[in-house]
Design the sequence.
């Protein structure tokens, strides 16, 4: 049974057991908050109405009425401070009763001084009933009890001390006060049901949100769990050994950043990095499709150039994007590491290489086209050979790095990244990655896109 099925009919009186306690706490909090408004309104308006006393009441009663209102205002002010400095509790609603007894009692005393049931000051009691019952979203039973307190106080004080009265005046006043009470209780009942339904809808929304975010967290964990964790690759007797460090920090959503390190049983070494356009589950799926496709090809074949692999995966990714009905594309660079060089193909961010012998950074632009847009990309892809000497550092990254933006709208940019690589070049590769990420985080303050950094240094 869902939470919404716990509502019986249109009244919404019944709440499912699983949320009853939460609703009671929720309602108590609202009542406590609105009690501050009620008492604040009270200590503001009660003295304000002394103007009416001064104009309409006999002058000999002015001092007495002023004293009544002063005492009533002081009590309301103390009550306000008490509510403001305490936390919501199950009995917080009793403050509402006390407001009615305090303010209603003062008005009832004034009607006694003005002759009893014949005094028009009884109208002030209607305002008290409306103010308390309309401002406090408590249960209808409290509205009934609260209205009864006002009616009984008024009737008792005037019956005992109000002197002679005309029965028609009593009937008229009680009739209008009772009608006010009925209206106030009815509106309170309707409003409480609306609050119940709002709470139930919020509970359903929270459940759906938690479930959605739970699924998103699983998707993000899958995305990061598939990332390689190797620290070295290609350590062969004839050299070509690389130290490796990498970092992928997803943004709030599931992203499409991708990189992989593959060493096949045939001795081939592959590095891939890419970025799917957009964010969300679709981008994450396309990223995983790409990873699976490339891994399958390089493990089952040998001697392929990066351009051949790109042509093959483009066919798969283009078809799958069409099946998804999505509008995505992907930038990918595929690198085959050889003993003293790397064979590169595919359009992605520039490759930065720190040349140890020169202590400078060389920028290697990538060439080609995006994956997943057209059926054939063979004519747009080419392989280029880039020499790599011992001590050289290769930095690969996604646009979340260079497009990180600070509060003034300036981007981190590739120039800052080059300077950072030069500055940290003497550190171990893991420290280079961490230091550069710290620089980016300190620059942007807020992460808007996935950030991927991949560093490898040839050490033999």
Sequence:
């Amino acid at each position: 049974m869902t939470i919404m099925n716990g509502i019986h009919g249109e009244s919404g009186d019944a709440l499912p057991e699983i949320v009853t306690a939460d609703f009671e706490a929720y309602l108590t909090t609202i009542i406590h908050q609105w009690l501050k408004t009620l008492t604040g309104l009270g200590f503001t308006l009660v003295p304000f109405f002394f103007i009416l006393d001064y104009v309409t009441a006999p002058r000999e009663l002015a001092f007495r009425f002023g004293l009544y209102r002063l005492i009533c205002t002081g009590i309301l002010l103390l009550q306000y401070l008490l509510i403001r400095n305490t936390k919501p509790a199950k009995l917080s609603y009793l403050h509402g009763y006390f407001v009615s007894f305090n303010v209603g009692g003062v008005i009832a005393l004034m009607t006694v001084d003005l002759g009893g049931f014949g005094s028009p000051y009884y109208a002030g009691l209607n305002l008290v009933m409306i103010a308390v019952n309309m401002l406090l979203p408590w249960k209808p039973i409290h509205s009934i009890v609260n209205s009864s307190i006002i009616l009984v106080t008024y009737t008792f004080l005037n019956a005992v001390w109000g002197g002679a009265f005309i029965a028609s005046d009593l009937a008229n006043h009680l009739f209008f006060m009772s009608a006010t009470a009925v209206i106030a209780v009815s509106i309170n009942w309707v409003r409480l049901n609306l609050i119940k339904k709002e709470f139930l809808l919020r509970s359903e929304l929270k459940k759906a949100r938690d479930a959605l975010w739970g699924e998103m967290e699983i998707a993000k964990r899958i995305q990061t769990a598939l990332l390689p964790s190797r620290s070295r690759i290609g350590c062969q007797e004839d050299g070509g050994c690389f130290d490796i460090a990498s970092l992928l920090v997803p943004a709030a959503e599931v992203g499409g950043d991708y990189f992989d390190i593959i060493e096949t049983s045939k001795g081939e070494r592959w590095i891939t990095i890419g970025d799917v356009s957009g964010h969300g589950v679709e981008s994450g799926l396309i990223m995983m499709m790409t990873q699976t496709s490339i891994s399958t090809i390089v493990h089952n074949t040998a001697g392929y150039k990066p351009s051949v692999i790109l042509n093959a995966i483009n066919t798969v990714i283009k078809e799958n994007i069409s099946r998804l009905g999505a509008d995505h594309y992907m930038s990918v660079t595929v690198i085959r590491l050889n003993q003293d060089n790397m064979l590169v193909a595919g359009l992605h961010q520039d490759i930065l290489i720190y040349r140890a012998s020169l202590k400078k950074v060389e920028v290697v632009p990538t060439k080609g086209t995006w994956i997943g847009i057209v059926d054939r990309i063979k004519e747009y892809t080419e392989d280029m050979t880039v020499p790599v000497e011992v001590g050289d550092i290769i930095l690969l990254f996604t646009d979340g790095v260079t497009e990180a933006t600070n509060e003034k709208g300036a981007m981190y940019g590739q120039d800052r990244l080059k300077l950072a690589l030069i500055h940290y070049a003497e550190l171990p590769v893991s420290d280079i990655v961490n230091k550069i990420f710290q620089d980016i985080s300190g620059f942007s303050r807020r992460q808007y896109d996935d950030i991927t950094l991949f560093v490898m240094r040839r050490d033999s």
